[in-house]
Protein 1
Amino acid sequence: MEINEDKRGDVVILSLSGRLDVTTAKTFHERIFSVIDSGVQRLVVDFSQLEYVSSSGLRVFYQVSVKLKEKGGRIVFCRLSDPVKRIFDIADMAADFPIFVTREEAIENLS
Amino acid sequence: MTIRTQTLLMVTLLLAAAVLATAGVLGWNSRQALLADTEAEGLVIVRILERSAAFGARVMSDVEAAIGEQMVIEATLAAHLVALGEAAGVSPQEINRRLKQIADDTMLDEIWITDEKGHAYLRNISEIDFTFSPDPKKQPQAHAFWPLLTGKTKSVVQETRQRDIDTQVFKYVGVAGVDRPRIVQVGYNAAFLQQLRLRMGLTRLVNQLVSEGSVIAIRVLDKNMITVDYAERLRDDKLPEPTESDLANLRKLVSEGRTESHLEGSLLKVAAPIAEEGGQLKGGAILVTLPTDRMQIAMRNETRLATAVSGLVLLFGSIIAIFGARTISRPIADLTEMTRRIAGGDFTQRIDIRAKNELGVLAASFNGMTRRLAESIEHLKETTAAKERIESELKIAHEIQMSMVPKIFPPFPDRKEFDIFATLVPAKEVGGDLYDLFFIDDDHLCFAVADVSGKGVPASLFMAVTKTLFKATAGNGGTPGEILARLNAEICRDNESCMFVTLFCAILNIRTGQVDYSNGGHNLPYYLHQSGVSPLENPGGKALGLVTQSHYASGRLVLAPGEALLLYTDGVTEAMDSRERLYSDQRLEQFLASNRDSSPRQIIGDLVSDVRHFAGAAPQSDDITALALRYFGTAEKMREALEVKLTNKLSELDRLNQTLAEFGSRQGLATNVMRDLKLGLEEIFINIISYGYTDNREHEIKVRLSAQPGEINAEVEDDGQPFNPLETPAPDTTQRLEERNIGGLGIHLVRKLMDGLEYRRQGDKNLLILKKKTEES
């Protein structure tokens, strides 16, 4: 999988593409935690290019959520691709994470 | 308002203005001339009056002088008579009687004879006792005779004048006495002189002129501006006396020696100073009031004449203007009408204007324009008809061309070893692309994609030739390289138009999956396999139709079940968007990488959509042709289940996925089915290696994939501790709340994504069967 990082003010947007499965989850975990460790408290994850996500990927988001809660930060999601949305729906991610249709809405929510 | 009306109106207005101006000027001039005439008449009258006044005055003074001399004689006679009578002792009464008798019998009216003291004791009028006085204050008139008493003078002749004592006009003459100092005075009543004046001279003339009627009034004034003569014709309204300002004006005229005339209502007043000839009246003025009736009548006649002439001129002018305007405007009206007809589509109209002016030129140009327009439209009709014919022919050609390539898919429904799909989207009505697929024998499928240089009808004809030759050539057997060499020779032989064609041709052995191919300068097809997408190796070879003796090498690859090939023409990769960017090989590779598991029909459909979406509004620049073939292997192979043995390591997930992908492509499973299966297997696999084992030793996990009608079964067998995912997983107190949720989440996903789960504990092994339907229910 690929992770693209983008900044809008103090909001960091991570765009994921490819597959977020058990093998790539580790990479993603390291990457996102290094971002948080660098002091970023507000995160947007763009799922528009992500083709696949397994529970290992979902697990990372829960870990991030716990970490950010400690630091007083937040993470929100946007632009879910169809396969991702399907998994998110089944896992009821919306109960724990704010999900937006566009990036702008997501960024605005954090601001 | 039409041009005709405008022209007419303009000409008529100009004409009317000209006529009115002329009539006005003429009328004014004649009025002025008449006024000048009348004034001249008045002046003549003034001059005549002037002279007659002078003449009258001279006669009157001559007459009075003669009378004066006569009266001196009479007074002298009376003096002598009185001297004689008194010397003879005649009584004063007697003398008075005699005097009275003389006065009664003659023209003499009064005889006064005084003594030394001025007492008129002798007189013909007994009633009045008069005594002369030397005092002028007492006797303004009579005192002049006193010097006769003193002997200072012998005679006194007084001019005729009004008497002091009454209003009578008298002339008195006196002589000194002959016997003793006396005043001997005789007096004439001068009324006759007045009558004489009336009968001749100015007054008479004035009255005569007035009574004759050619003059209304004449007023003669002396140098003191006192009226000396005035006559006025009897009319209804009397003329007013001249006012002070009138008199002042007259004085001014006299001092300047100027004549003035002015109209007062219907009267013309001419005022002129009396010149040298006026004698004693010199320095006075004459005011003549003349009637203007004559002038008025003349003016009225003049006006009537002018009106009549003006009317006639206007009438004739208007008639000429009507005809003129019609002549001028008719061509314009004709042109207008013609334009209207042309606008209505009638091009047979011609206009007939032979005028030599601009309208004539315009009409000629207009006729020319109409003729050319008609020709153009005729030409356009022909062109349109020809174009429509060509278009319909092109449409037929397109249909013929499309009928030349196989369009029914699947083309061989009873062949389960492979799936193939192709499409051709011509850029114009007909194109130069081509694809073909046919069995050479029972086991060998020949398929090809070609692109003829150029587009349109020539390219499509060449394409038809190529296709026919290709099928014939391929039917004669041989390797793809040999087929291309023979085809090239055939094409070169009759290729006078020097067209060429790039062609990729392949032969698939459906039993083994072996593909032999050869390439004549065409885009290299893509090989879609388990680990990605890559272009085929190029065996080398020029486009067909260029060089007669050309060598074409063959390449070879063996398709494993599930692998695929994509053949295409440059219409795909060189499709341009509105900013002239190419679709490009990279984009095609990316597309294939993301869609490599799809069915051929799906791949081709999505590819064409993607290319079109990329091009957007930009017109299609070239034919788009694509052919996809997926090899499934033989029917026996197809039914084979795939089994893979994994160890309990995370890195083994890759192998699991590869096996699944191979199975999926062999079975032609849809992307979403594959995705769900992949997730299910991953979750179960991770669950087993995470929680299944209490030791750190290596264990075997066996995964077996098999296809059932409409369903895929994935059996996972492990020797870990008993674990039934169908039961709610026991809470793990060592983990935090969020992580606990996740632990259950994987299993939750599997239960939701799979269409069925079966769990069995077989001996010391867990057997979990995941069931996934291949078709949407």
Note: Chain B has a mean pLDDT of 84.
Protein 2
Amino acid sequence: MPPADVSILGEFEQVVLLAILRLGDDAYAVSIRDEILDCTGRDVARGSIYITLDRLETKGYLRSRLADPTPERGGRAKRYYALRPKAVEALKESRRALVALWRGLEGVLA
Amino acid sequence: MNQRLPRGVEAMLRWLLPGDLVDPIAGDLLEEFVDVQRRRGPARAVAWVWWQAVRVTATFRVERHTRGRPLPPVGDELRSITHMWDSLGHDVVFALRMLRRQPGFTAVALVALALGIGATTAIFSIVDAVLWRPLPYAQPANVVLVAEQRPREGRLNGPVSPADFLDWRAMNRSFSAIAAASDFSLNLTGDVEPQRLRALAVTTGFFDALGVAPAQGRAFEPEEEQPGHQRVAILSDGLWRGAFGARANVVGTTVLLNAEPYVVVGVLPRGFWWTTLPDVIVPRAFEPAERTLRVVHMFPVVARLRPGVSIAQARDDMDEIGRQLAAKYPKENANHFPRVVPIREVIVGETRQPLLVLFGAVVLVLLIAAANVSTLLLARATARRKEIAIRLTLGAARRRLVAQWLTESIVLGSIGGAMGILLASWIVSAAMQLIPTQFLGLPGLDRIGIDLRVLLAAVAGTVGASLLVGIVPASAASNDRTAAALAESGRSTTAGTTTRRLRAALVVGELALSLMLLVGAALLIVSFRKLVDVPTGFQSQHLVTMRVTLPQASYGQAPRAVSFYDALLARIGAAPGVESAGVVTMMPFGGLDSHSGFLIERRTTEFPFPVRVRPLSVSASYFETLRIPLLRGRYLADRDTEGAPEVVVINESAARRFWPDSNPVGQRISLSFDRPRWIEIVGIVGDVKWRSLDREPEPEAYLSYLQQTIAGPTRAMSVVVRSTLPLAASAQLLRTAVAERDRNLPVGAIRPMDDLVAESIAPARLNLWLLAAFAIVAVTLTAEGLYGVMAYLVTQRSHEIGIRMALGASRRAVLLMMLREAGVMTATGIALGLAGAAALSRFLATLLFGVSATDPMVYAAVALLLGVVALAAVVVPSSRATRVDPLVALRED
């Protein structure tokens, strides 16, 4: 049984969370989008990234911090994201569920 | 490189996004904006960043909204915008729910709107293509026709003689190019399927005048206008794709036209358009004798205005040339002058009025449909008074209520509009199948369809109709005083006076508009009946026609053509089932025409005098075959051959016009001018209608085609056959008879004369059907509107009626009361409609034949008809009022 407070993650939510995890300290909207494009080939709309980040933060999966403004961004702050433990749990649970479902299907779908 | 976001983008983000997100998102966008500027250039980067900003903001707001976490408002402006947006969404959902809950109402309203918008869109697409789109020429406004006007004969756009054309070309200072063009037909043979082609012979400047260049190859060179050098041809795109299978190297190949070799020098561009829709264009070479020919008028002349020259200047220039030519050649040129007109005016001329009438009619239908839906909504508005009153009392803003009503009508209008556009595309493709052949030469017909312009017009129509539909009920709903509304709805008595008046006004309007349409349709019906009853002057039943063109190469010598037709007529005439057969150079309703001046012996001093006839060369059997009656003297006979005395038979119109007080039989005329060759008039025959039934017959002169010296070339003839055989058998007989004489000869369409006559009235018939269809739709909608209003009144007033009946009113009195109310509306509507119809009648006048546009009988009949329909529509709901049970009525509420 999964922990009670971990709701099932949507597919795109997983993609975003994994991208943030891969990027470590450098996860902000633009780099997240690039990372998803690099890894999956999906060209995701910017709006979708923002709303997903917004939603995941509201649900308590993410925390964000504003970095110091930089000149190349016209003096604007960057919002960096990082995973909260709840997100890590949810990802683990998703992976477990998926792996369980995949087991035995390698021959069929390989 | 721009290191800042466009100011508007920044402002929009600040305005529409939550404050804590603006900076990070703006920063992200700027980062990428800089990158995109580098890769794609500044202009595209700006477009890109705007598009991204709009998408991000929209996605964000929609997402937050649907997740039940609407964005915190930032400032009052934002609040009102968000609010409006949110309430619009609510209104749309609410409107859809209301529409679904009343499927009957929704269906009726949608059908009305779809019909109105669909018909309007369809007619608009045709009107737009034919009347308003530019012709497919370079600077089409500079392309003009230079025609010949004969004011004394009432002709405006006549064809031009070769010598006049050559003089115009040499003398004018207004045109950068001027060309003569004449249409004829050619036989295409050789290694392709033999076929008859629509051909156009043009002088060199033709393509320059239109500003069109061939898609492949070249236009004609000036020396190709010289006899002996004209064996070159330019193919139409259609012919190239059809007969030549879009062969790549067709330019430079040789084709056989009328059995003579022509070198293909070019192929026309795809959208090329000329009134006669030619398949092939060849140069027009002038024989030396033709260069001084002024009495045969055969060419339409097209020209292009020099840059900077106005049409008025060109007119002055050509008027002066006309005066000089008239002074120099008084005999030939005293009666006619050049006339410069924009090309579209001539082409579209006769079609403009009917098209605009139809467009006007269809807009009336749309107005009626809108008014109809409006009355339906108004009825519902009254039914929802209680709801509105409560909402107003609870503090709902009037603006919100109006917005909600308008949303409902716009939702209704949009669905109706979408259905209407579908309907329109269907109507247009169906209409293309029905288009009479006379209209095929109109510009733009190949481009008619639902394109962007038409869609925009449809959307405009939809929005207009929706607003019309919604504005009345919306304002009515919000104008009622709250307290009054509450009081009224507490005891459901009658609807408020404002609403009732509005509804009556709408129904009166509908009645008036329908009456106007009905009058138009009725006038066309009467006119059409008169037209059909016009005698043609011959018996068109059981006549079959065929056009044969003998090629110059093998039939160049006159006797060969004569003996061909002689033998052909003998062969056909002897076949079982054939009563008689004849030939004629041009037949009635055959689409050809030409005129020639002539001299009357001992009256030549009377020049200038418009003595012109249509010369026709015929076989002696022609009169008998068509059953054209003999009025005086004798018909032409088989003995009128070459060598026998030269004779001519004229028609009644010629006799009346040129010999009003004397007997023309025995007089002599000449069709040649310089050295008159006098031929004796031996008979007068009855008039025959030529192009259409509504035109007066013109003077005609029949010559025996056996007398070749005066009859002129008779290689191209129409064969007319009177037979009792079925059409297929006649056609077979004609084809076999031609093939037996010359198997290489293609035969044109074999058509019953009745069809040709019917085709001549096809435009009138089409006008009639369309206007009648519109009128029927209009009357149906109006009747429905009347019914709805009366039915509603009855329900609304059942309480009052109950009281009246309880107090002793008879059923008859109640019925009369209801009918009186409907009668006042109907009478007002009819009166207004009659006035409107009379005012609009002058637009219809040109389409009418044999009936005045203000014919009192027609107006009276239509008013009566509409009165009866209105009575039928109100009698059912009114009689329902008399069956109100006073007890039940009083117990209600």
Note: The interface with chain A takes residues 3-5, 21, 23-32, 34, 52, 55-60, 63-64, 67, 69 of chain B (CB under 8 Å).
Protein 3
Amino acid sequence: MGWKETVEPVLTRMPAVRRPEGHVPFKRKLAWTAGILVLYFFLTNIALLGLEVGEASDIFGEFRAVLAGEHGSLMQVGIGPIVTASIVLQLLGGANLLGLDTSDPRDQVLYQGLQKLLVIVMTALTALPMVFAGDFLPAQSALTLGGLTFTGNEIQWLLFTQIFIGGILILYMDEVVSKWGIGSGIGLFIVAGVSQGLVSGVLAWGDQGLIYSWIQIITGETVLGSFASGEALYTLFIADGGGQLLALMTTVLIFAVVVYAESVRVEIPLSHARVKGARGRFPVKLIYASVLPMILVRALQMNVQFIGQIVNSQWANMPGWLGVYSEAGQPVSGFFYYTAPIYAPGDWMWWTAGVTQEPWMVMVRIAVDLTFMVIGGAIFAIFWVETTNMGPEATARQIHNSGMQIPGFRQNVGVVEKVMERYIPQVTVIGGALVGILAVGANMLGTIGAVGGTGLLLAVSITYKLYEEIAEEQMMEMHPMMRQMFGKE
Amino acid sequence: MDKGQNTGGLMSSAGLVRYFDAEDQRAIRIDPKTVIAVGILLGVLVQVLTFVS
């Protein structure tokens, strides 16, 4: 009797969205996806009932772009709980502690149930400290609904209930998109948030808006200063409310690099064992594990900062080595300062006025961030490949089952696996580390709309994947035979 | 054609949450329309209550 038998009755009964029977036409898929997206935007605009308006700072802070959702709305937790649950599953699965074989239907059911249960638990664990610890979601002192009057604690529970239901709803919205629509809901929400950030970064009528600040510069409202002393260049490239040229260049560069890197691949030639002349290629992409593992690394960093915020709000005389927080609630020294990722140029350019720390402290922080992202990126990429059946063994089996072989080698699963082992692990590690460097680099240079390097990387690569998927869908619409080839009914 | 990639119908693309084809008969099934309906109802309910309070 293992743990599987014990929990089976619970895990197999987790409510799931019904699967479509048969083929869903492309237009219907598009409609479901659009419908969920509209619902998501609608819910991000509904403010929580009983929330004191104003003051409160977003507990996710700079991670909001990656975790989607909206502070103070029903979508408060965003995809945070899903990501945290995924980290737990990745670590357990990657270390093979679960003992679940994802090619066995019974274990698949258990895996899905466990995943769902973990997300629900994590939603509660994320929502509880948000409402009850610190001042992240201050409750109103009194609330009257019809004849009922709620006070203090009751309003906090009311807030918690709303956030919790919102969090569960995000999980099911993702499931609807995954089963009935195109791509995944999580990807959709991240892209939605980042795109919103980018668009408002260009159009916003204020200091952070690109067009607005250029009008200010052209009309002479913003004083450039002299070019000789470099003051003008500083205004044009870096300064807040300046020309934002550096951010613009970084944003465009990230777009270009990601789209280019998507096409960098090692192609392993394949030929069909029986049909002569039928050839194919198996691509091992540079960004093989895609950018998604990056969310997990960032989420780990976020959780450290999250703990820091809570400790800070609960423990008045926290020792200095652990963390010193500014009035605005930002870590300025200690452990929580060094482990905080770099979000924007203002966090590390120590020659500017915004940085109060010593240069060596900033250096340590950059080094910690870079090390964490590069090593973490590589490790999570490896786990990701293993748990999503993209590893040498799983791909070799898939290639073998589709009747293909590598020309010049024996037709044998083991042989294909050997060849795959020469490429997949190396490419995965290099790709993971590269994405880590890109994310930190983009954050250091800043991006339009302050969406952050990770957010931008994610948005671009998800959109690219979505484009590929839509192309594939349309091909299947046109040639029903293709469905069989792609293994879909 | 990227053959080896999507075969088996196991993977939902690029998702943090993985859904398999296998389903248990005992599981509670939700219609996707129900999810959307619950979402809209929740939003409208909270908004209306906010106006009332």
Note: Residues 239 and 346 of chain A are 9 Å apart (CA to CA).
